[in-house]
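Let's practice the habit of predicting before peeking. Look at the sequence and jot down your guess about where helices and strands might fall. Then scroll down.
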Amino acid sequence: MRIYELSPVSSFNTSKGGLYPAINRMRARGLISAEVIEGDKRGAERLSCTPTGVAAVKQWAKDLRDTHFLPIDPLRTKVMSFDLLSRDEQIEWIVDAKAQLAAKLDEVEIYDTTVEIPFQALVRDNAVTALRMRMQWLDRLMQYVVKGTEPA
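Done guessing? Here is the structure:
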């Protein structure tokens, strides 16, 4: 739960109120099992993936869909309505978006030092590369807005 709670990925940063019902559904489907941790006064449980759960995760990991390759990008979608903003509003939006991406990059770097996950270096590389590429894309967008010509 800590890995997801601290995650810089907003869709992973799930509240306990959303996580516990998901755990209950997985238990009901036989995907996870629970073992009470001896001596824990709160009645905490150690969750483990069952063989059925492992098979389900394997199937999920192998499943490739068209939506995985060019996912929805709210920034890209918003730019399609950029003509409604003044030049100054466009510049302000780009500067703000780039600053927020830089903050997210810092968040990814910090997160990387606080958790251990499988293929951590490659997962981190994907997140960092994606954020840097989006920042470069915003630089090209800024060039277009400032010069009024398509970037090269």
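How did you do? The chain has a mean pLDDT of 88.
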